[in-house]
Structure formats: structure tokens, C-alpha cells
Design goal:
five-stranded parallel sheet, alpha/beta
Length: 216
């Protein structure tokens, strides 16, 4: 019902969520239920919609066992969501990169950081870790997005958000986001001159561009 209600509005669905802790469906119906649930979502969503599995990937090694269950049953899904709540002891960035690269063993899946949080009182540590997380995630070929799980300290599921304090001042982690996304990863004012065949090449980041052409 919900898939058909929003048939034309959404391009991706979190079909199966947090089954590391909530496995009652599998306990009753067996692990083939994962295959069935993705199949029903595929049937009732618009063609081209991406179907995701989302879970506590940053904490629990059993997460890999779930992926192996999906593969064993032939579940048809498109992507894997890393919830990414880093609110206490922080892992090293190479550890996070290793987890991303593990996904190459489970087919050609899209990846997404779905619930990033970094509830740390030390704003500089929060900023440095957020910066490094963004860079590591942006560098992963299969990664398609980075979603924050709260951005303002005045209404946040944890004590400290990465973006704004309660007075709406941009915090250092928010400044890192702005610098990376809108400066370092945003191709601005690129210029090129056509060659003898009328071809011009610009090295830029993926995205949509407005182009101005000056002739003669």
C-alpha cells in the first residue's frame, strides 16, 4: 500500500531495516522472508527504484552474516545503508574504508551513509572526524549519498549534532562540510578552448553544468 501511495514520489526505499536486532520475521518464516520482502517492494515500486537494506553496519560484525543470507536466498536488492552513528569511541578511518571495501564481495551494490551522527562535545574532534568521514566516503566508487541524522543541537536525537549549536551558529564540523562540498568538490569557473576539431575538455566533478560559449 505505501509503495503504491508514493509510487511517483520516491526513487529509493529502505525496504529492510535493523534486522540485526529484530529478526522475528526470519524466526517465524525463515530467511527466505528477506527475498520475499524485496520481491514485493520490487513489484509495487516504480521501475528503477533502488531498494536498500539498512542497519548498524558500524558496530556489529554479524551484519556481514545478514548480507550472506541475502545472497544465499537470491534476494533482489540494489543497495546497502551504513547507519554510521559514531557517538562515542571513534574508529580509525582505515577501519571504515575496509568496511566499505568489503562490499565488493556482495555484488555490484550501491552504498550510502544513511544516518551519520557524531555526538561529541569536543567540536574540533567532531569536525576532524566528520571531515575525514566525508572524504573517505566520497572516495568510495560505489557510494551514492551521505545523510545526516540530525543537524541542530536544539532538536537532535543525540546531545551534539555536527552542524549547528542551539543558537544556530555553524559549528566547525558544519564548516568542514561547506568547504568540502561547495569549495573543494564543486567545480567552479572552469574554462577551456576548443581544438581544431571543435572539442573542449574540462576536468570536473560529476554533476550538472551550465555552459557559456563564446565564439570568435
Amino acid at each position: 500500500e505505501i509503495c503504491t501511495d508514493y509510487y511517483n514520489d520516491l526513487v529509493e526505499w529502505d525496504v529492510i531495516n535493523e534486522i540485526l536486532k529484530h529478526r522475528i520475521h526470519a524466526e517465524i518464516y525463515g530467511i527466505d522472508t528477506w527475498k520475499d520482502q524485496f520481491a514485493w517492494a520490487r513489484q509495487y515500486t516504480k521501475p528503477g527504484t533502488d531498494l536498500y537494506y539498512n542497519d548498524y553496519a558500524q558496530l556489529n560484525p554479524d551484519w556481514i552474516k545478514v548480507l550472506e543470507e541475502f545472497i544465499a536466498t537470491g534476494a533482489d536488492f540494489d543497495g546497502i545503508g551504513f547507519q554510521s552513528h559514531y557517538d562515542g569511541g571513534l574508529p580509525t578511518i582505515p577501519t571504515i574504508i575496509e568496511k566499505y571495501e568489503l562490499m565488493e564481495n556482495y555484488g555490484d551494490k550501491k552504498l550510502k551513509v544513511t544516518e551519520y551522527s557524531c555526538s561529541i562535545a569536543d567540536q574540533m574532534l567532531q569536525a576532524n572526524f566528520t571531515r575525514d568521514m566525508l572524504i573517505a566516503t566520497f572516495a568510495e566508487d560505489d557510494m551514492t549519498g551521505f545523510l545526516y541524522w540530525g543537524f541542530w543541537d536544539g532538536a537532535n536525537f543525540a546531545a551534539y549534532s555536527p552542524f549547528f549549536d542551539k543558537e544556530w551558529n555553524l559549528k566547525p564540523a558544519g564548516e568542514q562540510f561547506v568547504d568540502l562540498v561547495y569549495n573543494k568538490w564543486w567545480t567552479r569557473d572552469a574554462k577551456a578552448t576548443t581544438d581544431a576539431n571543435g572539442k573542449a575538455t574540462v576536468r570536473g566533478f560529476y554533476g550538472d553544468y551550465d555552459i557559456t560559449v563564446n565564439a570568435n
